[in-house]
Prior knowledge:
- By secondary structure, the protein is mainly α.
- The protein has helices at residues 3-6, 14-35, 39-50, 56-62, 67-79, 101-110, 113-122, 128-148, and strands spanning 54-55, 83-87, 95-99.
Amino acid sequence: MDSKSKLLLDNQLCFPIYAASRLIIRTYQPYLDELGITYPQYLVLMVLWEKDEQPVNDIAKRLLLQTNTITPLLQRMEKQGLIARQKSAADERKVIVSLTEVGVLMFEKALPIPEKVGATLLSCSTSTEDLVLLKNKLTELIETLSNQVKE
């Protein structure tokens, strides 16, 4: 590969991953708009639906975000009445995030979203097996990069 080819957009791994990510998020958007939330808020809610009452640091780590990135997001979610934040009784340096009743009830409204998005992805001549393989390979890549790239 010559020097000029190394910087061609079509030869980059990062661009198709970036573009696919943006397009997938755009596919989620109409469903999230119905709930009045953004994609990052949806991710936080999924983490809390899996296990409620978590420290901010644990949520940030699970989403591969820094706490200074997630804090404004959590503040907006608290204003929307989706979550509550309070200092830990055991360690006042920790802030515990928990779902409010509104956040808990949103779970039922969000249940159809993965299936609807999945149907859109499958309509692109991609099989379920292809999507599972892609997800697994991306998870491996994320794990590899997370171990190499320290924030």
